[in-house]
Structures are given as structure tokens and as C-alpha cells.
Q: What sequence folds into this?
């Protein structure tokens, strides 16, 4: 995949709009804050689901955060 960033990958591969790509990146940064980590990886899903703060979010917010994490992991695998 070369030097493509996550943002570029969302735009080019997933055909996201500029705003949807930025929202996805923002959600990934939120996940990092929630799990208190600088990196997202395969363990991030487990850490997120077991986090007390995350448990208090609505189903809608949880779904958005999980989807962003799935997309980031997909991007990592494609690199």
C-alpha cells in the first residue's frame, strides 16, 4: 500500500467523504483515550469492551467506535 495514510485509505479504498474519514479518525483517537493507549491493535477491541467508561455509552456510540476500530484494523492488515 505504500505510504498511504489511514485518511487516504478511507477516501480511496472505502470511498468515504472527507467528513466521514475525519469522523472515523476522530473516533479512533477517542478509542485511544478511552483505553489509555497510543496504539490501536488486535487487543484494542477487548480493552474497549471491558472499559467501564465505554460500557456507559449508548448502543449507537458503541457501534460507531467499534466500526472505526474494525476499519483501522482492516487498514493495518492492508498495509
A:
Amino acid at each position: 500500500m505504500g505510504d498511504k495514510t489511514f485518511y487516504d485509505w478511507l477516501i480511496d479504498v472505502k470511498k468515504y467523504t472527507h467528513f466521514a474519514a475525519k469522523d472515523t479518525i476522530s473516533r479512533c483517537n477517542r478509542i485511544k483515550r478511552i483505553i489509555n493507549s497510543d496504539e490501536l491493535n488486535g487487543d484494542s477491541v477487548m480493552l474497549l469492551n471491558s472499559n467501564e467508561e465505554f460500557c456507559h455509552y449508548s448502543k449507537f456510540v458503541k457501534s460507531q467506535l467499534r466500526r472505526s476500530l474494525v476499519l483501522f484494523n482492516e487498514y493495518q492488515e492492508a498495509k
Observations:
- The radius of gyration is 13 Å.
